[in-house]
Amino acid sequence: MNHVVAVECRRCGRRYAPEDVTYTCPVHDGDDDGVSGVLDVRYDDDGLREHVETEGVPDSPADLWAFESFLPVGAGRTVSLGAGGTPLHEAPRLSDRLDTTVRIKDEAGNPTGASKDRGTAVVVTRAVQAGHDVVTCASTGNAAASLAGYAARAGLDCQIFVPADIPDGKAVQPRLYGADVLAVEGTYEDAYECCRTVSADRGWYNRSAALNPYAVEGTRTLGFELGRQAPTADWVVMPMGNGCSLAAVWKGLAEFARLGLLADPPRMLGVQAAGATAIYDRFVGEDEPGPERATGTAADSIDVTGPHNAARACRALEESGGDAVVVDDDSILRAQRLVGESEGLFVEPASAAAIAGVERARETGIVGVDDEVVVVATGTGLKDTATAERAVGPVRTVSADPDELPEL
Ligand SMILES: [Zn+2]
């Protein structure tokens, strides 16, 4: 049963019946300072509380549909590739290196290799239930692959807009799923605007999280799972690009706290790369970032210089009593290699940024030696081996003659 009661404008507080609005607040749906008219989905807490009392909440969900009663979908068909239900790894050697207790929520095992599958499962299910034929989004890569995979699963057409400089692996994956991938000559922001205009003209259903209020609702299940797997965590650490994933995870954690399912929710630590610091700047109250602070980063998933959900991310950081840090590309590449060598996890550079963020937060005293820290590894590093090669260097060539093999 669906417990959605309204969608609410985060800017003006107006509430709308879910069937009356598709995307942003009609009163101000233009872009402004990162607030725009993004709508937040509101649920009936009493109804959910009653559901929890009668049905309980799964400790080890097989996938995110174990939380279907918390999700904004109807009673019809759900589209599934098995997103959610990901492991939380102990990380003893990494903890030693970072001088605090770290565990890793490993989202690489999602169907297309990234946490975006949680949001996509819900959006594509809504598209199917509403009778849409074409879905679309603008993406730095992971959401594109995710939407394309789920569209294929559901039998929908898929049109993807990406910035032209995304890693090859991220441009190939959605095409393999049968999507049309349009590489826009420009930044992510250019791709987003192009997608928004064309999809409005042609009536395509747009997954972009800066527009579609339901795009991040599935990501709340990551917060739900953390609430079950790590109820004593002091910090949840996530990379921030657009800011929507961190906000959604916090929304899930806060909901579980309100429903009495989590006694002491963690603080959120948001991590940005030095070349794309807009959310950090807003959080610490700095003025518009200068051009030298919007130079881009090797962590392509968070290479967003004009994030659309900055206000939402900052609110989540504030509500949780959290904080934000910035890390440079060298520390991101070092962290990518470190988590690979120490724990056997090949994470994407954005996830490595979160690891580097823990290191930074230990240096500055934000995170203490006795704190329990959970890092969300948002996606696999296998989609971008060119950047990973910068972390490990070139492969060594040796003679085929075993006698000539050097000491190893
Ligand atoms: Zn409004």
- Overall geometry: globular
Structure summary, number of beta strands: 13
Radius of gyration from the CA trace? 21 Å
Determine the CATH topology of the domain at 88-113 and 215-391: Rossmann fold
Q: SSE order, as H and E? A: EEEHEHEHEHEHEHEHEHEHHEHHEH
CATH architecture of the domain at 88-113 and 215-391: 3-Layer(aba) Sandwich
- Uncertain segments are none
> How can the largest sheet be summarized?
6 strands, mixed
Query: Gap between N and C termini, in Å?
Result: 60 Å
Overall mean pLDDT:
92
Strand fraction: 15-25%
CATH class group of the domain at 88-113 and 215-391: Alpha Beta
Describe the structure.
With 408 residues, the protein is an alpha/beta fold. The protein has helices at 45-55, 92-98, 116-130, 142-154, 168-176, 188-202, 220-229, 244-258, 278-284, 310-319, 329-343, 349-363, 385-392, and strands at 4-9, 15-16, 39-43, 88-90, 101-106, 134-138, 157-163, 180-184, 205-206, 235-239, 267-273, 323-327, 372-377. The chain has a domain at 88-113 and 215-391: Rossmann fold, CATH 3.40.50. The strands form three sheets. It has a six-stranded mixed beta sheet, sandwiched between helices. Helix 4 runs parallel beside helix 5 and helix 7 packs across helix 8 (244-258). It is globular and about 75 Å long. The structure holds zinc ion (ZN). Zinc ion binds next to loops.
